[in-house]
Design brief:
The protein is mainly beta. The protein has a single domain, classed as SOS response associated peptidase-like (hypothetical protein yedk fold). The strands form two sheets. Strands 3, 4, 5, 6, 9, 10, 11 and 12 form an eight-stranded mixed β-sheet that branches. A five-stranded antiparallel β-sheet has the order 2-1-7-8-13, with no helix packed on it. The model has no long low-confidence stretch (mean pLDDT 92).
Length: 195
């Protein structure tokens, strides 16, 4: 699952996305407007609802394994969601400890899908099974797209997009529960702490 993520170094995406300006975010959370590349850079609500729903679903994740078969995503369109890290929580006794996943400052994009519901566009981050180096914290992880395949992803080509070599280089460390509050959006969210 991916329920929070970061874009610490927003300027890294400027050249990748033709000079588009992205706002840094240390604690992107569901319900917020997040950067998403479609045919151009947009800010889209993180929470997807299929157009046919009677009430909002606000799905924040979509499983890669069932993306093409779930009715909820049948009419969705692919997008790229810029990031340079994400958070996962691990239960330890009666505590839930947040961990920050990163690639030593390197930027990447999650695969995503988006669509409209009653005049509002929403998106979801695609997830896949976690690689062996990340499974101890969570059995799912965001679907990271190979940079060389960004355009192919957006054009709906049917090839293997998941960048396992990049995912295997992801490192993680514990951070403060300060990040639990989605209103906290600064460097304090990513400082390593000892429990």
């Amino acid at each position: 699952m991916c329920g929070r993520f970061t874009i610490r170094n927003a300027t890294a995406f400027k050249t990748q996305f033709g000079g588009a300006e992205i706002v840094p975010n240390f604690n992107a959370a569901p319900g917020q407007k997040i950067a998403a590349m479609t045919d151009k850079l947009n800010y889209i609500k993180w929470g997807f609802t299929p157009f046919w729903a009677d009430k909002p679903f606000n799905l924040v994740n979509a499983r890669s394994e069932t993306l093409s078969t779930k009715p909820s995503f049948e009419n969705s369109t692919r997008c790229l969601i810029p990031a340079d890290g994400w958070y996962e929580w691990k239960t330890n006794g009666d505590k839930k400890i947040p961990f920050y996943h990163h690639l030593e400052g390197e930027s990447f994009c999650f695969g995503g899908v988006y669509g409209g519901y009653r005049g509002e566009v929403g998106c979801a981050i695609i997830t896949t099974q976690a690689t062996d180096n990340l499974k101890e914290l969570h059995d799912r992880m965001p679907f990271i797209i190979q940079r060389s395949l960004y355009k192919d992803w957006l054009q709906n080509k049917d090839i293997n997009f998941f960048d396992e070599s990049l995912a295997k280089r992801i490192k993680f460390y514990p951070v403060s529960t300060y990040v639990n509050n989605p209103n906290h959006n600064d460097e304090n969210c990513i400082f390593e702490v000892l429990y």
